[in-house]
Specification:
It is a single chain. By secondary structure, the chain is of the alpha/beta class. The chain has one domain (5-243, 327-335): Aldolase class I (TIM Barrel). Helices cover 26% and strands 19% of the residues. It has ten helices and 13 strands. The protein has helices at residues 35-38, 45-54, 76-85, 123-130, 134-148, 169-175, 192-199, 210-226, 247-250, 304-309, and strands spanning 5-7, 14-19, 61-66, 88-94, 113-117, 152-158, 180-185, 230-234, 252-256, 261-263, 276-279, 282-285, 332-335. It has a 13-stranded mixed sheet with strand order 1-13-8-7-6-5-4-3-2-9-10-11-12. Strand 3, helix 3 and strand 4 (88-94) form a beta-alpha-beta unit. The protein binds iron/sulfur cluster (2 copies).
């Protein structure tokens, strides 16, 4: 039986998480987009190209086009072609509505992956989270994309509302011929932040506890791998012997928003602490107290931003010490098909 492996951060490989707009046709319950902090403008194709060039770097690079809903952008197919010319591996993360006839306007060999977001294995679980009718539309377009020959993956955001249904994704993904599955943990950002604060210590928070997570996610991932699906899920909790690493120090991730803000850590995206901004043809380093000032702080709880921004998610023993560290939210476990 294949064992899950921790995917080490790759120095020298870049990933650009490119939010080309924040508008969306859906209103998901856990949406992390925060137009006050991220802007509500739509980048022009010239701006998108400019950002892709500025952030390209010299080594291998990935760009993940995001929104809002990226297929709402009428120039997304052009943006994909520009990114491929610059030798990016390209992924589009979509809610599955495939707007502006996206599937008709791009060829399967022009894009590396189309990722479809589903938060439940059926309408009853998915639609209360993502919106009435979204399961049917998303799975319908996913089938269409598979038939056309696109590489597809599915993203499932685990919360209190759907962790019990995660295992039922395996037969659904098998029926849909999906071979790549990304499980995410709900972030306490955007719309989820107030619920988390009110709930405190997992009361009404949408986030699941360590025990709930460990009781379900690794076992489902292993079963999915047995069924021929390649699964990636966040590490979340480190064991005592495991080393802690902050992606802000050892990896090259850039989270770019339409208002020009560029973050290195996704947990910081609700705050004006971005490390850089895009201005004209340059990536400008921001001054003052910024996210980067915190990355090197060595604390018993592990991720410093988790401790600062989401302290209620940390458990302590009777002596007041955290029994384990929270990993970087970008650290992943991967289990490949058997
Ligand atoms: S599809 Fe994405 S951007 Fe749109 S509401 Fe849902 S989480 Fe937010
Ligand atoms: S989540 Fe924590 S460990 Fe990861 S980049 Fe942000 S501050 Fe660093």
């Amino acid at each position: 039986m294949n064992k899950p492996k921790t995917v080490a951060f790759e120095a020298g490989e870049r990933s650009i998480f490119y939010h080309i707009l924040t508008a969306c046709n859906l209103r998901c319950r856990h949406c992390y987009i925060n137009p006050e902090q991220h802007g509500s403008n739509t980048l022009s194709i010239a701006d998108i190209e400019n950002g892709l060039k500025i952030l390209r770097g010299a080594g291998p690079a990935n760009v993940i086009f995001l929104g809002g809903e990226p297929t709402l952008h009428p120039d997304l197919p052009t943006a994909i072609r520009v990114a491929k010319k610059l030798d990016y591996a390209v992924t589009v993360d979509s809610n599955g509505y495939m707007l502006n006839n996206f599937l008709e306007n791009i060829q399967p060999d022009e894009v590396d992956f189309l990722s479809f977001s589903l938060d439940g294995p059926n309408r009853a679980v998915n639609d209360p989270i993502r919106g009435e009718g979204s399961f049917t539309v998303c799975t319908g377009n996913l089938q269409k994309a598979v038939a056309l020959g696109f590489n597809v993956s599915v993203i499932y955001t685990v919360s209190r509302a759907n962790i019990a249904d995660l295992a039922d994704m395996i037969p659904l993904l098998t029926n849909l011929s999906v071979k790549r599955f990304f499980i995410q943990v709900i972030g306490l950002r955007g719309k989820s932040a107030p619920a988390a604060k009110n709930g405190g210590n997992f009361g009404n928070s949408p986030q699941v506890s360590r025990d709930e997570w460990l009781a379900v996610v690794p076992a489902v991932a292993a079963r999915a791998a047995k069924a021929g699906i390649h699964v990636t899920y966040p590490k979340v909790f480190l064991e005592t012997a495991e080393e802690f690493a902050c992606a802000g120090l050892v990896a090259e991730n850039f989270f770019v928003f339409p208002n020009g803000r560029v973050y290195r850590c996704p947990l910081c995206e609700d705050y004006p602490v971005n490390s850089y901004r895009i201005e004209g043809n340059s990536l400008v380093r921001e001054t003052g107290l910024r996210e980067e000032a915190f990355f090197a702080l060595n604390i018993a709880e592990g991720c410093v931003m988790n401790k600062l921004l989401q302290p209620d998610t940390i458990e302590y023993d009777a002596g007041g010490a955290p029994p384990r560290r929270i990993s970087c939210c970008l650290l992943k476990q991967e289990i490949r098909p058997e």
